[in-house]
Specification:
The complex is a heterodimer of chains A (236) and B (336).
Chain A: H1 2-33, H2 36-41, H3 43-60, H4 62-65, H5 92-101, H6 127-140, H7 147-158, H8 164-167, H9 195-204, H10 219-233
Helix pairs in contact in A: 1-3, 1-10, 3-10, 5-10, 6-7, 6-9
Chain B: H1 15-20, H2 30-33, H3 41-65, E1 78-82, E2 85-88, H4 89-100, H5 109-131, H6 134-137, H7 139-153, H8 155-159, H9 164-173, E3 183-191, H10 199-214, H11 221-226, E4 229-231, E5 236-237, E6 240-241, E7 246-247, H12 248-254, H13 257-263, E8 270-271, E9 275-277, E10 280-290, H14 297-327
Classes of the chains: A mainly alpha (236), B alpha+beta (336).
């Protein structure tokens, strides 16, 4: 009788394992196959993505973006918990594309149209020019600035500095290039929005990187991460 | 009344012994089936079959769902498989969005179909190109392939930006590289060979000539002829001595290492000691000299940046060639 019981338990455990295997592979397939908008409407998929993504994020992303998605000024890793996205609109598929191929990662499909040139170091702008541009950015971002210098900076922004070409003449940034908005950032800057940091950014340039995770993470992990980050940035 | 024993059973045998001798008895109960203290060929066969079926199922699942081996079903991450080559769903979504400039959800089914067809067609053309061995004979394809592989090799180098510390360390270690180019005006003179003159006498004549030149003797034709001197030919233009500015690197390329080593140390207006080289005795006269000047780090920062990257690329390229050659079977003719 005892043996019969043991055998029954073994069969049950095996059955549960097989069910789990089929169920998990089934939901993984559904998660990867689903259109981004479908995931938003499917609580089961979102729940599964939430169960997978945090561990992946902690292991692979948190070192740069911070444990709570808050970003890191020291390396220019953006805050992932706000609604601001450099590339695209922050949709699941946009986020997924960035995770898959990275930013300036060296992958042929990476976001790599431009980076922030070293205007001062390259000699394109003088130190005074850089200072003026910084005052202009401080002004339009709602910080205290020197008005006379900022006026000169505005002319440089729209002229010799060619800043408008990437950041837009309205300074709202261009998502195709991944250039950040310079106004309405509410203190949320990639490297910091204070006078000294902005000066360094314009003078020395910036070259932010995000690795390509295709081949290093599974498609399920990448999709789950994209869903997780999308949720993290679209909470109200 | 006493029940008679069967003929086959020895008298006195117990019921359990009787069961043991009838292993193939089909009337065995379920309790007997799980009695592992007894041999039961039916149970053995059943468990064996169960194990084999389970093994086959697991192997089959693994085989037919493993990436690249699936022949009957589409992996979830792919929107299409073209001769087992995947077209990723994510690439399809991105391409559709890029083409129609709207979120994927707002595209119509025919629009998606068109993008998918285009991607499949492209994949087919790429596969066809490989099939007809385009890289084997088309120079454009070969160049594109080489460039593509190089880009892949250099991906990490191109992606990484050297830090300030790395730039400065490189500059410090290669200061000689970051100097302005030196310029000089000079004559590379040689003593003519006189048949009646032994080597010690020729050396003595060279020393005297050097002394005369250092005392201000003019290097005109008469002096040259009288003293058996000539321009070496290394720095001649149209049969006449080149009296213009010569970059240091040009002088280095034209003179022998031994001679250039001496010239490089001479300031303007100086005459060298006689230099006994393999082709004869040289006397170097430097009339003007702008020595190379070390450039400031800030002035050459971009060059340092580019040199670091170039060196890193060279290292990777050479390592890759070594690795590829170690794996390749190369038969090359020695007659070239």
């Amino acid at each position: 009788m005892v043996r019969f019981g043991l055998a029954s338990v073994a069969v049950m455990v095996l059955g549960i394992a097989i069910y789990q295997l089929i169920h998990v592979s089934g939901i993984e397939a559904r998660l990867v196959r689903a259109l981004p908008a479908e995931i938003d409407r499917d609580p089961k998929l979102k729940k599964y993505a939430r169960s997978v993504a945090p561990a992946v994020y902690s292991e692979h992303c948190a070192a740069c973006h911070g444990a709570t998605l808050q970003g890191n000024h020291s390396n220019g890793a953006p805050n992932l918990a706000d609604k601001v996205w450099l590339y695209g609109t922050g949709s699941i598929s946009d986020i997924e594309a960035t995770i898959l191929y990275g930013i300036r990662s060296g992958h042929p499909k990476a976001h790599n149209l431009t980076d922030m040139p070293a205007f001062g170091r390259n000699g394109q702008l003088t130190q005074q020019d850089v200072q003026d541009v910084v005052e202009y950015i401080l002004k339009i971002s709602g910080q205290r600035s020197n008005n006379i210098s900022a006026e000169r900076g505005q002319a440089i922004y729209a002229g010799a500095g060619v800043c408008y070409d990437c950041h837009g003449s309205d300074a709202l940034g261009v998502s195709d290039y991944g250039t950040p908005a310079l106004i309405g950032r509410d203190g949320d800057w990639l490297y910091g929005g204070d006078r000294n940091t902005l000066y360094k950014t314009v003078y020395d340039g910036r070259h932010g990187l995000c690795p390509a995770w295709i081949g290093k993470l599974s498609f399920v992990q990448i999709r789950a991460l994209a869903v997780f980050l999308h949720e993290g940035s679209h909470h109200d | 009344m006493i029940e008679p024993l069967s003929k086959a059973e020895p008298p006195g045998s117990l019921p359990s012994q009787r069961r043991r001798t009838s292993g193939s008895d089909t009337s065995i109960s379920s309790n007997d089936f799980f009695d592992f203290s007894r041999t039961d060929s039916r149970r053995s066969f059943l468990l064996l079959a169960l194990g084999a079926a389970l093994g086959l199922a697991i192997a089959g699942y693994g085989l037919f769902t493993a990436k690249g081996t699936s022949t009957t079903r589409l992996p979830p991450e792919d929107i299409a498989l073209v001769n087992q080559k995947p077209i990723y769903r994510s690439d399809f979504v991105i391409q559709t969005q890029n083409l129609y400039s709207v979120p994927f959800e707002q595209t119509t089914r025919p629009q998606r179909r068109k993008v998918l067809d285009d991607m499949i067609n492209e994949e087919l053309m790429v596969q066809r190109g490989i099939e007809v061995d385009l890289p084997g004979y088309d120079p454009d394809v070969r160049t594109a392939l080489v460039n593509g592989v190089e880009l892949q090799m250099y991906a990490d180098v191109l992606a990484q930006a050297p830090t300030e510390e790395q730039l400065e360390a490189y500059y410090d270690a290669h200061r000689a590289k970051y100097s302005s180019i030196g310029v000089m005006r000079m004559r590379d003179l040689m003593l003519n060979i006189r048949p009646d003159e032994a080597a010690p006498q020729r050396s003595e004549r060279a020393r005297k000539l050097v002394a005369e030149l250092r005392n201000g003797a003019s290097l005109d034709d008469a002096f040259m002829q009288l003293n058996g001197l000539r321009d070496s030919g290394a720095l001649m233009q149209s049969g006449k001595p080149d009296l213009g500015d010569i970059f240091d690197f040009a002088a280095q390329a034209k003179l022998t290492p031994k001679v250039f080593a001496v010239v490089n140390q001479l300031p303007a207006g100086q005459v060298s000691d006689p230099i006994d080289d393999t082709d004869g005795i040289h006397i170097e006269v430097v009339t003007e000299r702008k020595a190379p000047k070390a450039q400031d780090f800030e002035a050459v920062r971009m060059r340092v940046w580019s040199d670091i990257k170039t060196e890193a690329q060279d290292r990777i390229r050479n390592a890759t060639y070594r690795y590829l050659r170690s794996k390749a079977e190369i038969l090359a003719s020695v007659a070239y």
